[in-house]
Specification:
By secondary structure, the protein is of the alpha+beta class. The chain is built from 15 helices and 7 strands.
Length: 368
């Protein structure tokens, strides 16, 4: 199918966006820093979730230089609860590069933008078009859904050939007039009107030319992969006490939840119960011996591709000097100090419950 220019429909789309767009804080300014922060936060995260984090983050770190000068712990703490923590680390690294190599000014070419840590093709295209007016199409989930329905593309959008086709269609439709508004209009349309389920077709500025609407296939396009049940894992961790303080460990700089602090522990091995897992994991990670006192709390948390139940146990330090063998660093902290550290969501819930709970008597007995 040859691309058919939107023509007046494109004008109608941009006009609709300028009249109906949501009043979002990153749209109130052309500041490249604020737009970059918003785009990184919005990756795989809903607008309603991002809003309070964005306001606090740019208030605490108002510029590339301010973010570059901050410690990673402070950045992760400000990001705490937003998830996908690797994004915060990449954003921190990108700010350092912009401050050091570009004198605090975001580079204006798409290929230079794409070279920054954490800035993939989608974010680079968004920045290039919204900030600098380059005609680079943005292919996020929302704009892809609009394109598939408008052109009646029934295949899976994730396939490479369909991805190339969608990019060419979007580039053709965009033209060179107001590429930033065009991209934002496509994303906004997909977010609030052309939604995955129960789309509001009568309110759509493109409905008169939408192929999926004409063929009554809106609910079938785009082709969505069926998602199975998420795997579920049990994890055990120790709340290790010594003289009124608790031992926490900082995760390694690579892998999931990199650089966050947590109560040390891990997954049980075959034939191992949760208490045995706690003792072994702490020995392997910190080279110390602990005695398990009693269960504390179990919390559940869902990540993008799996779920966990985190089982925590009060423990007493029995021997050995901690060594960061399976972690970056460790710290003995008073319970009230736990919330100063960037913690994963499940560990944060444990810490909050800990501050509201009495210390069990078995700890005193074991410590003797």
């Amino acid at each position: 199918m040859r691309p058919r220019p939107l023509g007046p429909h494109g004008d109608r789309l941009i006009s609709w966006y300028r009249q109906q767009k949501r009043d979002l804080p990153w749209r109130q300014s052309k500041d490249p820093y604020r737009i970059l922060v918003s785009e990184v936060m919005l990756q795989q995260t809903r607008v309603a979730t991002v809003l309070p984090y964005f306001e606090r983050f740019v208030r605490q770190f108002p510029s590339f230089q301010a973010l570059a000068s901050a410690s990673l712990d402070d950045v992760l703490k400000a990001w705490q609860g937003l998830g996908y923590y690797r994004r915060a680390q990449y954003l921190h690294e990108a700010a350092k590069i912009v401050a050091r190599e570009y004198q605090g000014q975001l580079p204006n070419q798409p290929e230079m933008l794409a070279s920054l840590p954490g800035v993939g093709p989608y974010t680079a295209a968004a920045l290039a078009s919204i900030v600098f007016g380059h005609p680079e199409p943005v292919l996020d989930g929302n704009s892809v859904r609009v394109l598939c329905r408008f052109f009646g593309i029934r295949g899976k959008p994730s396939l490479a050939q369909n991805r190339r086709r969608l990019r060419n269609l979007a580039r053709h439709l965009m033209g060179r007039n107001s590429p930033g508004d065009f991209n934002q209009a496509m994303m906004e349309l997909g977010a609030v009107v052309c939604t995955p389920r129960k789309p509001r077709c009568p309110d759509c500025p493109l409905v008169v030319a939408c192929r999926a609407y004409q063929t009554q296939e809106v609910d079938l396009i785009p082709n969505r992969s069926r998602s199975g049940n998420l795997p579920h894992f049990h994890v055990a961790a120790g709340i290790i006490w010594n003289d009124g303080r608790i031992l926490i460990a900082q995760r390694l700089p690579d892998g999931m939840l990199a650089n966050l602090w947590e109560f040390p522990g891990g997954k049980p091995e075959a034939g191992e119960n949760l208490e045995e897992c706690v003792i072994r994991e702490i020995r392997e990670e910190l080279q110390i011996e602990v005695a398990v006192c009693c269960p504390f709390v179990a919390v559940e948390h869902a990540y993008s591709h799996f779920r966990i139940t985190l089982h925590t146990y009060h423990c007493v330090h029995r021997g050995g000097e901690p060594r960061p063998v399976g972690c970056q660093r460790f710290a003995w902290v008073r319970p009230i100090e736990l919330l100063r550290f960037p913690l994963p969501a499940a560990s944060l819930r444990v810490a909050e419950r800990l501050l509201q709970s009495p210390i069990p008597t078995c700890l005193t007995e074991l410590a003797r």
